[in-house]
Design a protein that fits this description.
It contains nine helices and no strands. Helix 1 packs across helix 2 and helix 7 packs across helix 8. By secondary structure, the protein is mostly helical. It folds into two domains: 82 residues, Orthogonal Bundle (Rna Polymerase Sigma Factor, Chain: A), CATH 1.10.1740.10; 70 residues, Winged helix-like DNA-binding domain superfamily/Winged helix DNA-binding domain (Arc Repressor Mutant, subunit A), CATH 1.10.10.10. The chain is elongated. The longest helix has 23 residues. Keywords: Sigma factor, Transcription, Transcription regulation. GO terms for molecular function: DNA binding; sigma factor activity. Belongs to the sigma-70 factor family. ECF subfamily.
Amino acid sequence: MTGSSFAIDVPDSLLRRARGGEAAAFEQVYRRFERPVYTLGLRLLGDPEEAMDMLQDAMLKVCRRIGEFRGESPFWGWLRQIALNEALMRLRRRAPLDFVAEVPEPQHDDDAALPSRAADGAALERALAQLPDVTRSVLWLYHAEGFTHEEIAAQMGRTVSFSKSQLMRGIRRLRVLLDVDVEVMAHV
């Protein structure tokens, strides 16, 4: 499996102490990974409260299973997989969403200045929040986490074609929501 494009270093001594059951060491591990695990949950689930619940449940599982970590791969990859599984389990409990909901066409303001990068980021956040959970999750897993369609399909208990279709539908919807000119994008 590919992984996210960043890693979080954890001293081996800290992991040894946490695996040995030292509460203070596990608290340090929790503090290092609290934000990235929460962010992953928020990206996949789209709900801050549910992302916080997912963070707590995932970290409890990590606490119980930290002895299983053998150090053969980066710790963040191991922890991230636990968090990802927890988020996807929560998505599966929801009513299945196999389609992208219709989104109203954006209002045009031709006289508006181009937004700054921060405004672009905020617009993307708002647009992603309008996508169905499953579609947003496929987009995030593919583009941000670097998973292949085969990996996404396996993680979500779906087919490869489902992953591909959700990705394409999501991209088309984002273009509408962000008012991206497809012809301009083709030349970038």
